Amino acid sequence: MRHSTDHILTSHAGSLPRTPELIAANEARSFTDDGFTLTSTPEFEGLLTEAVTDIVARQKAIGIDVPNDGEYGKAMSSAVDYGAWWTYSFQRTGGLELTEFNPISAEAVRSEPGHIRLTSFADRRDWTRFSEAYQDPTSGIALGKNATAFPTCTGPLSYTGQEAISRDISNLKHALAASELSEGFITSLSPGSASRIGNEYYATEEEFIWAWAEVLREEYRAITDAGLVVQIDDPSIAENWDQINPEPSVEDYLAFTRIRIEALNHALRGIPEEQVRFHLCWGSWHGPHTTDLELKHLVDAMLSINAGGYSFEAANARHEHEWRVWESAKLPEGKVLIPGVVSHATNVVEHPELVAERIERFTGLVGRENVIASTDCGLGGRIHPQIATAKLAALGDGARIASQRLWTRGR
């Protein structure tokens, strides 16, 4: 993972808007007999390869130093889709099948001190506090449509995505070479986030999470063995807080979260930290987020994850003030911060001067060489492609302004 040696490097959190052609092609794909695994054709694979080559070239042209494949290998069949970062994993895992259980609309679960459990997504405290807004299709916070249904674990988990991840790696490496770029990343789900589906096989939640760690480790290793950077997508570390009802104590929550971090670190064992980025967010839906847990309670847990870089939301209206956490939190030697300085949560395009100011807040605390400017979360499936392009351009312009100031001042 590169450091910002002569200018502020830029990247983003992963998902980028799909082309209309790719969305239509995913919509046209049929399912196998299990009802949730999408089939493919040589024509689709060719379209996907071309789309990845194009999106990497466009990232370079717009000023992104560390690009990815836009997550195009993760199926999105609707222009608004908040779940593609997660639902792709169903296509790559054995031991799953469709049942009547749906984690979105399942029966509510109540927690007790010392024994906290995740409730359904529909029973989130933010969603129930603002139930009228969430149920109003004109409110602007609809979650769109997922490409696949949510299955349940009914047998031993196994990784079956070897062909799919090999395709993703090949597409990105081909695109990087075509654009003469040296570094790229591929996103991959965390065990803690993956385990938020139904489980009818494993005896305990902890056993289920560790089974996911063994499954996903194969994907992490495939990406890093290919010389690429893996970004672990794990909103569950922060987002689970809102999915526990009633609100738990911070101590109980951190104990609940520690199991997920231990499982992730187990899955990352032996993988060089400099090839690992970790992405933390509070969920990318455009809701009020009044029940988000503050970063100050999570920062130590995040830094205990065996990664070389830490990506997190730092630009949206709920979390921008939390840059001050880094006045006391100590970034370990050799690691980098990848703060969001452009938000996915608004259609307003940030002014480059504001982006530069946000960047300089962090460089003043951890050093210019230890900051990579990024987006809060994925832009794909959340905002219009034209606006996403403008936001990435503002990110690049703001990084150039900050770089000119920082390197002119010599610090």
From TrEMBL:
SUPFAM superfamilies, alphabetized: UROD/MetE-like (SSF51726)
Residue intervals of the Cobalamin-independent methionine synthase MetE C-terminal/archaeal domain: 206-390
Protein name from the UniProt record: Cobalamin-independent methionine synthase II family protein
Record organism: Georgenia halotolerans
Lineage, uppermost ranks: Bacteria, Bacillati, Actinomycetota, Actinomycetes, Micrococcales
